[in-house]
Amino acid sequence: xxGRRLLITIALLLAALWGGLLGYMHLxxxxxxxxxxxxxxxxxxxxxxxxxxxxxITSIVAIDxxxxxxxxxxxxxxxxxxxxxxxxxxxxxxxxxxxxxxDPGSDEGDAALALALQQxxxxxxxxxxxxxxxxxxxxxxxxxxxxxxxxxxxxxPLGRFSDVAAIGVVNVxxxxxxxxxxxxxxxxxxxxxxxSFPLRVASLALGINPAFSPxxxxxxxxxxxxDNGQRLPVTFYGPRGTIPTFxxxxxxxxxxxxxxxxxxxxxxxxxxxxxxxxxxxxxxPVLPGVEVMATAATHLIAGDSIVRDRNVRLLDSLIALxxxxxxxxxxxxxxxxxxxxxxxxxxxxWAALNVAAFAHGYWFSAxxxxxxxxxxxxxxxxAEIWIDRRQAVHFAAQSDLLQRxxxxxxxxxxxxxxxFLAKPIRQDAAVIFIDLSGFTGLxxxxxxxxxxxxxxxxxxxxxxxxxxxxxxxxxxxxxxxMILFGxxxxxxxxxxxxxxxxxxxxxxxxxxxxxxxxxxxxxxxFKVGAHCGPVVASRLGSGNRQQITATGDTVNVASRLMEVxxxxxxxxxxxxxxxxxxxxxSAPLRSGQLEGPxxxxxxxxxxxxxxxxxxxxxx
Length: 619
Known about the structure:
Elements: H1 2-28, H2 35-49, E1 58-63, H3 65-71, H4 77-88, E2 94-100, H5 107-117, E3 122-129, E4 150-151, E5 153-155, H6 159-162, E6 166-169, E7 173-174, E8 180-184, E9 186-189, E10 192-195, H7 197-206, E11 211-213, E12 216-219, E13 222-225, E14 231-233, E15 245-247, H8 248-252, E16 265-270, E17 278-279, E18 287-288, H9 289-302, H10 310-333, H11 337-359, H12 367-405, H13 410-416, E19 425-437, H14 439-468, E20 472-477, E21 480-485, H15 494-515, E22 525-542, E23 545-551, H16 553-567, E24 572-575, H17 576-582, H18 587-590, E25 593-600, E26 609-615
Parallel strand pairs: 1-15, 1-16, 2-3, 2-16, 3-6, 4-9, 22-24
Antiparallel strand pairs: 3-5, 7-8, 8-14, 9-10, 11-12, 12-13, 17-18, 19-21, 19-22, 20-21, 22-23, 24-26, 25-26
Helix pairs in contact: 1-10, 1-12, 4-5, 7-9, 10-11, 10-12, 14-15, 15-17
């Protein structure tokens, strides 16, 4: 019990340390080794929650396959200017051009595009180039931008365009599968600090300058929680086309529906097949990048982005600390069907709450609690199984030892009925006594080591014969033993088996005494007595030390019959009562030399009894 308590204490302590370490790493955002698992579980939750209808804030005008077929690809600046002008004519709130205008086109086309961008508040794209695939950030409490990755190079639009339109950075933060998970709302490159493309769009649409605070963004009276590094978590409304999308070819043909454009944000970008600007999402393996930008801009204005800020991460860390402690405590409390059902219920309840929170706009980590709970629980379970196996081996050894000491079946009987012989019972039984003759002198002659060897072999021989005939060796005393037939329950053939056992003992003892090296040249013999009748079976002793035995006149007579056999020059003396009960086909009648019945006096009794004397044929 003390060992198991120590194991539970160590398991709880290690689980707390492990969960605390993972929680600390999660707070700092340094858990990239769990990103793939978290990404898969996030996609699963998105699929479970399902697609939703986006608010009527944003529309997309796509440079699609039809546009490319009609006008070539990429569009020249003059054609692009016509698309922008066609959209502007329908009075959108903001036009967002998700195209990099870093190289000059024809002077006439660039001038036309610059003029078109002036007609409506506009945002054009810039992009940061990072030296590494994994962006490493610093930590500096005095620098609010320390957690913002720094680009080695910025791809900026031409000055003639940036003079008439705002600039927004189109970089996204993807996971290992390439799915966009975050929009960095601020980007740094050299001496520049730029807002993201969606943030610049939302700011222009609302006519409000953004204000950042630790873990948050304010757009007027709208407060949006942000994740580490002022990143906006992104979830998707559905597959491509969920945000209303129209072809730029329709814009050029004057066929855009006015209601889908008027007073809305219109994002213009490429969706042409093979254009390369696509991302896998839970709902679509090739979602166009323009729809990612449109989704993020919608989140910022509608305020419906999923929440994953420091408070959510802190709660994640607390769950990572508490869940393994709870599961280990439950596992330690009860390892049964009920216990496992409670553990499964706790895990399912956590999973259901996690999915429900995701559906209501809170992104709690699913991978972190699994990583925090699974290793400690598995290790604790494995340790308990190992300890249980060791205990099982120990108990098996103890049981085997008990079976060697007690009669076959006695241990099982006691296990089924612990109160067996708690009170003495009177019943019929057959009793055999066997004793070595001349052993005291032998002990002085052969020394303690050889004495132990002789007694060990003697006890093993007696035990084998008792077991093979269904008897119980109830005691080994010095150089003798008592065998009882009739426990745990009396049987009709107790006397028959006792007679056979007595004869078999005699037949084995004679060659064993002759062949044993330690007794060479020594005068050692043996004597056996057997009787049957009523006995009182009981447990002797108290507390943890108890022995099953039998007492009464029957036992005393069986013991004294050994003297009768020795006095008359025989190896075995059997009472007439035992012979009668054993029947006409008993072992003494079928082998060896049998004489009797003869009257014999029994020491300690006033009346004698009839006795049969048996010995084997000469060797």
